[in-house]
Amino acid sequence: MNLEQKLQEGNKRAVARLITLVENKDPAAFELLKKLHNKTGNAYVIGITGPPGAGKSTLTDKLVKSYLNEGKKVAVIAIDPTSPFTGGAILGDRVRMNDLSTHENVFIRSMGARGSLGGISEGTSAAIKVLDIYGADYIFVETVGVGQSEIDIVKNCDTTVMVMVPGLGDDIQAIKAGIMEIGDVFAINKADRDGAKKTAREIDAMLDYNSNEWRPPLTMTVAVNNEGIGDLVDSIKEHRDYMQESGLFETRRINNTKNEIVELIKHRVLEHIFDNAYNEQKINNLSKEVVKRVTDPYTVCEDIMHNIKRK
Amino acid sequence: MDRPIRVLVAKPGLDGHDRGAKVVARALRDAGMEVIYTGLRQTPEQIVNAAIQEDVDCIAVSILSGAHSTLFPKISKLLAAQDASDILFVGGGVIPDDDIPFLKENGCSEIFTPGTPTTVTIDYIKANIKR
Amino acid sequence: MFDKEKMDQVNEGLDKFNEKTKSMLEKRPERNSVFYSGSGDEIKGLYTPADVEEFDYSDIGFPGQFPYTRGVQPNMYRGRLWTMRMYAGFATAEESNKRYKYLVEQGSGGLSVAFDLPTQIGYDSDHELSEGEVGKVGVAIDSLADMEILFDGIPLDKVSTSMTINAPASVLLAMYIAVAEKQGVSSEKLRGTIQNDILKEYIARGTYIFPTEPSMRLITDIFEFCSKDVPQWNTISISGYHIREAGSTAAQEVGFTLADGIAYVEAAVKTGLDVDTFAPRLSFFFNAHNDLLEEVSKYRAARTLWAQIMKERFGAKNPKSMALKFHTQTGGSTLTAQQPENNIVRVAIQTLAAVLGGTQSLHTNSKDEALALPTEDSVRVALRTQQVVAYESGVTNTVDPLAGSYFIEAKTKEIMDKAMEYITKIDDLGGAPKAIDNGYIQQEIMDAAYYYQKEVETGERIVVGMNKFQIEEEAPKDLLRVDPSVGEMQKQNLVDLRAKRDNAVVDAKLAALRTACEGTTNVMPVILEAVKAYATLGEICGVMREVFGEYQQSVNL
Q: Potential cystine with A126: which of A22, C96, C226, C386 (Cβ 3.0-4.6 Å)?
């Protein structure tokens, strides 16, 4: 199919196909992205992150419905872990968004983290662009919620919503390396549970240590009952308005893009080295030498770099 | 062909028995595939829409309630209407042998009946997706 | 139970025995390096008094007395055989009615109604989602009119009827009461069961409608209503059958089922009901799998645990509250599509297990179960299986004959301990509804199911005819087919019904239902009114869906 044409027509299959191609680093697909780059930048990207069991998918489902009611076009990228052993993944977030599958203005794509420590795959950035070109007004990126994913998500989103839940040992969760600085907006979901007020107080207290000018709002939600969604939408809008009025919106996008470019280069260079300079076997052999104490990792690295520079 | 095979595992209709679907989904994951599991009570429209948005190579449906002769052809028709008949369509569950020819005439490539080892299903999918 | 000196002698003898066998085993190794029970627990070569050293007869006691390990009646099958209750139902009410009359003629002691999926999920036959499903896995009941046909010519004061219905149990029970009323039978005389176990629907069976809280409310409303108006009715069949079918182990079957039971009792007590007013009418439903000895131990373990829980945790005083009565169904998932005749043998073994385990009623699967719904011939053989065991095998002559076996007592205790661990874990998670909410129970079952499949595929677990002793087979013939026109017929019936009935009255009754659902009054009387006015199942459940919302499923893979 003529991908570009179908894409412009808003054909969902073309969108889906292009996402697959960029996720798998198809060169022709990147050419297309280059060509259509000026069609990106319109969608507002919202990251949804938080520990497993917080109800991210249900919350996303309700947020999407809220924006749909405003007549907006919404896309969701739902990321689940990839098994490091088999390379496979169970992508189950759609289950929570079943009635959205057939909505005209919704596009939902499930992606495996595919080996990225951050839980956000390289493909995610590219997929966001594709959905942007498709015409989504809002793009939700829902992450795995463990490891470094909360940090990576910020690099791809305009607003990050941190979803917490009472009773999961949240106080410890929240202190986890810099989590409190990642959320632009906080939601305590399943707020009808015991301990919700306590969790809210704890998070509030921690947010007081926040050194930024923006004081993240804290919203109580019970996503399954559609409670608190309106407030959450308002909080997101508050953040968006703040970012745009203060000029930080642009700054952030520039920083995110900087990260993206650096990551792209890192990956290309790495591919380049392993493809052209040293193959898997050679590295294996060198590693054996290191373990035997014939050489050391730093020397190996210098040798390789020296050889590359020479080439 | 390094990119993982993507499979949609779905439970169409009202049947709530998902042990088989879940076991297959897990086996496919262990074989390195990305499995989009839709959960229960899927309409043919939901299944096809999901398959298209997820750009899957294969749709695998499981049904034990006897409604296969109605629901499977519906899925095929919707796929055809969306120009998506290149997606491999397979099924399993409680499906009498006598019904299989009809299902195959109506868009299903293969039916995996009770007792089929998951390895057979995995090998079939690998060998028959259109890529 | 054993004095120290005798025990020392046994232990000495055992050490010598193990020494002797060790050298024999080195020359002739056993068939497997380890032997596993059906649920995957290691089984030793020999069990002796050493394995039940701590055992005291008072731990199990006498049948018909706390803790009911040996059975819930003092003389069990000598007094009355278990009820031979064959689950049946398909297509239309007329055809099902015929099958019920056939089964009663052939000696079945009670009726067991299977409903189709639309009915189980509260949809009428003309609903979009009912397409292709009407009458397929059970009978289609859209209104009281269908229910009247279903029980036409069957005196409801003379039979006991079990209805496998969960989310809309309130409605079907109301219909049953209404049919009885028309027969001139008052609700006090009605005997039977409704499955009414919503927690296992979320866990393993999938025919839920509403979220947890309103579902529990409906269940406790039924408990309360029946305790006054239908006192002989078993208001719930707390089920482990489906949990086992979904892939759990025997210990999980007991643990998760009893945890569900605890949740129901807690919910009822919370509404102010005294435990002894409703607990005697709680019943259970277990699976009968292939490992006969493990299954017998399982039933004994379940009875013992439940008795202890009711007495110690809930302070029940009425002995009937502590006695776990159960129905059993032979394990559908153990049957093969390959060489279906072998299934008759499997079912016979499973029947023995259930009977040796003291079941109160039993459904035996037919040989063609893996292929389709049973034909009249194959269901007759399934019924005969029960009758052969009952009348020819001798196992009914005495109560709990396997008691005292070192293996059985050791295994009973082992399953009890394991099940209790699961119950404790679920308590820690805040109870069964919460453990379901966060997927703990479903994940455990899924893991067990996956290991089982792996074992079958590697050949570690042998399934005769399927991964060993296979033959080339022709496609099976003469399977039961549900006439696809059933759907159309039901749709037409609905059109006719809506034309005939007084729609103003129906609307009024549905409005009253809405009010009751929004409030806290017992919904049963209001549902009964609506049912008598010929409001359809879909209409009644539709109102409830609007007020209560729908359950949101999750994925636990």
A: A22
Count H helices, E strands: chain A?
Answer: 13, 8
Exposed, middle or buried by CB within 10 Å (0-12, 13-18, 19+), for C29?
A: exposed
Q: Which residues in chain A (96-135) have CB-CB distances under 8 A to chain C?
A: 96
The answer to whether C163 and C114 are in contact (CB under 8 A) is: no
CB C412 within 8 A of CB C300: yes
Tell me, what's the pLDDT at A173?
A: 57
Cα–Cα distance for residue pair C252/C286, rounded to 1 Å: 12
CA-CA distance, A89 to C267, in Å (whole number)?
39
Which residues lie across from A49 on neighbouring strands? A162
Phi and psi torsions of A43, nearest 5°: -75, 145
- The pLDDT score that the predictor gives to residue A50 is 85
Fold of A39-248: Rossmann fold (3.40.50)
CB contact A274 to B (< 8 Å): no
The predicted-structure confidence for A175-223, as pLDDT tens digits, reads as follows 554 667 778 999 999 998 888 888 888 888 878 777 788 899 999 999 9
Enter the ipTM: 0.95
Of the candidates B14, B17, B24, B94, the one whose C-alpha atom is nearest the C-alpha of residue C243 is B17
Picking from C365, C262, C372, the residue whose alpha carbon sits closest to that of residue C314 is: C262
Pairing of strands C35-36, C42-43: antiparallel
Strand partners for C7? none
Burial of residue C267 (CB within 10 Å: 0-12, 13-18, 19+) is: buried
Tell me if B34 and A86 make a contact (CB, 8 A cut-off).
no
Stated pTM of the model: 0.91
Q: Which residues of chain C have pLDDT under 70?
A: 1
Contact assignment for C211 to A95 by CB distance below 8 Å:
no
Q: For chain C, which domains are there?
A: 4-57 (no CATH), 61-458 (3.20.20.240)
What is the mean predicted confidence (pLDDT) over A62-71?
Answer: 97
- Interatomic CA distance for residues A278 and A307, integer angstroms: 10
Give strand pairing partners of B42: B12
Residue A176 to residue A135: CA distance in whole angstroms: 36
State the DSSP string of C513-544.
HHHHHHSSS-SHHHHHHHHHTT--HHHHHHHH
The closest alpha carbon to C408, from C461, C357, C334, belongs to: C357
Rounded CA-CA distance C158/C154 in Å is 8
List every span in chain A annotated with CATH 3.40.50.300: 39-248
Q: Give the relative orientation of helices C292-308 and C406-428 as an angle to the nearest 10 degrees.
A: 50
Q: Is C445 helix (H, G, I), strand (E, B) or coil?
A: helix
A177 in reach of chain C (CB within 8 A): no
Could you please report the per-residue DSSP string of C25-61? HHHS--SSSSEE-TTS-EE-S---GGGGTT--HHHH-
- CATH architecture assignment, domain B6-128: 3-Layer(aba) Sandwich (3.40)
Question: In whole angstroms, what is the distance from residue B79 CA to residue B72 CA?
Answer: 11
Smallest Cβ–Cβ distance between C121 and the set B14, B18, B94 belongs to: B14
Most C CBs within 10 Å: which of B9, B14, B17, B113, as the mutation test of the C interface? B14
What residues are paired with A79 via a beta bridge?
A: A111
pLDDT in tens, chain B (131 residues): 468 999 999 999 999 999 999 999 999 999 999 999 999 999 999 999 999 999 999 999 999 998 999 999 999 999 999 999 999 999 999 898 889 999 999 999 999 998 899 999 999 999 999 87
Dist CA C430 CA C457 (whole Å): 37
Grouping H, G, I as helix, E, B as strand and the rest as coil, residue C124 is coil
Which band of pLDDT confidence, cut at 50, 70 and 90, is reported for residue A274? low
Helix H or strand E segment including C228: helix C212-229
